[in-house]
């Protein structure tokens, strides 16, 4: 469960006294997620989410994330909205952590991805990209290609215990992916903009097979738009048995291109972008797998699911392998 920081009743009461959102009715930790501590909060004026920002979030960057969420909402993307306290502050401190209250979004995320989810997902992703165009401040991707070698290095003592030969396999993969990355060594750069960078099924809420909202913008950054597509190919288009589902990929792209057509250069880069996306999630999962204490109240995600994906992408030479 992802509650890294406990919040006492007294601390919560004091915290809520700063807000004009009614009095507390119910409060519980949310078991899902691995990054931040999330709590569901019910007050006499409605439901809210309280987030305490943990390990991977830099507090100095929180205004960028909260500003992006406010901007996207103004542009028609349904996402959590920071709630200001009586002084107009959205970013506060609770139990020694940076903290914010955001609005609660109705809907449920798909526990089993089906083809019907993929087209609306693609459309929502492209709408996010379009809406982000007018958000000027930039945030570099802290988990982009430059971060992967140091991340792998920080796993050096544990990778081969997770799977024999893993460290060397990932080093070889990195030596292939990073020099081939768009914008590196003669490879053309791609259109850039604000990307979500973590749009997994548990961050997309549906109601009646339509997307009702997007959550968890704390990896959002300014990067290649097509990298976000590649992240979704990884997160949505593989079956539980590890097989790639080309129908899901086609549906997702169909939905995406209803709003924004991919350029030729973006399509051509899809294999390397998909390799990089698999590498990024494999490495953060591997890091958490190795470094999370056994008694921590969080269930780390299996890095090896992403090794299967990485191998698939490395064997996929052209965009045709994705049915695109
Ligand atoms: N604004 C919201 N409205 C409704 N439910 C929410 C909201 N924000 C979070 N949740 C619930 O809390 C869960 C965990 O939230 P979130 O995905 O933001 O956590 P995280 O630790 O950052 O997770 P991740 O592992 O996806 O990075 C979600 O799956 C959802 O059930
Ligand atoms: N969505 C990520 C967790 C948050 O970074 C994963 O599944 O590995």
Automatic annotation (TrEMBL):
It is an enzyme of class 2 (transferase). Belongs to the pseudomonas-type ThrB family. Keywords: Amino-acid biosynthesis, ATP-binding, Kinase, Nucleotide-binding, Threonine biosynthesis, Transferase. It catalyses: L-homoserine + ATP = O-phospho-L-homoserine + ADP + H(+). GO terms for molecular function: ATP binding; homoserine kinase activity. It comes from the Bacteria. Pfam families: APH. InterPro entries: Aminoglycoside_PTrfase, Homoserine_kinase_II, Kinase-like_dom_sf, Pseudomonas-type_ThrB. Its EC number is 2.7.1.39. Pathway: Amino-acid biosynthesis; L-threonine biosynthesis; L-threonine from L-aspartate: step 4/5. It comes from Acetobacter ghanensis. This is Homoserine kinase. The gene is thrB. GO terms for biological process: threonine biosynthetic process. Residues 27-261 form the Aminoglycoside phosphotransferase domain.
């Amino acid at each position: 469960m992802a509650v890294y920081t406990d919040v006492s009743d007294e601390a919560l009461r004091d915290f809520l006294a700063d807000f004009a959102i009614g009095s507390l009715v119910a409060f519980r930790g949310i078991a899902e997620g691995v990054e931040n501590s999330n709590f569901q909060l019910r007050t006499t004026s409605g439901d809210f989410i309280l987030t305490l920002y943990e390990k991977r979030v830099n507090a100095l960057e929180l205004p960028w994330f909260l500003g992006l969420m406010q901007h996207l909402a103004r542009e028609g993307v349904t996402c959590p909205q920071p709630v200001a306290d009586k002084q107009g502050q959205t970013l506060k401190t609770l139990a020694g952590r940076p903290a914010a209250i955001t609005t609660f979004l109705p809907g449920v995320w798909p526990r089993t991805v089906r083809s019907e989810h993929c087209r609306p997902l693609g459309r929502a992703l492209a709408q996010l990209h379009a809406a982000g165009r007018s958000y000027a401040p930039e945030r570099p991707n802290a988990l982009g290609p430059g971060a992967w070698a140091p991340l792998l290095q920080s796993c050096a003592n544990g990778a081969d215990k997770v799977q024999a030969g893993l460290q060397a396999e990932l080093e070889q993969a990195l030596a292939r992916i990073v020099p081939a990355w768009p914008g590196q060594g003669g490879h053309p750069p791609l259109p850039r903009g604000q990307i979500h960078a973590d749009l997994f099924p548990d961050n997309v809420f549906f109601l009646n097979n339509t997307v009702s909202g997007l959550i968890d913008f704390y990896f959002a950054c300014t990067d290649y738009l097509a990298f976000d597509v590649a992240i979704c190919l990884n997160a949505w288009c593989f079956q539980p048995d590890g097989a790639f589902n080309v129908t899901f990929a086609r549906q997702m792209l169909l939905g995406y291109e209803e709003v924004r057509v991919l350029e030729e250069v973006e399509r051509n880069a899809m294999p390397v972008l998909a390799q990089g996306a698999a590498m990024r999630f494999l490495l953060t999962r591997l890091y958490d797998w190795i470094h999370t204490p056994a008694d921590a109240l969080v269930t780390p995600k299996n890095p090896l699911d992403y090794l299967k994906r990485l191998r698939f992408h490395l064997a996929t030479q052209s965009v045709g392998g994705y049915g695109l």
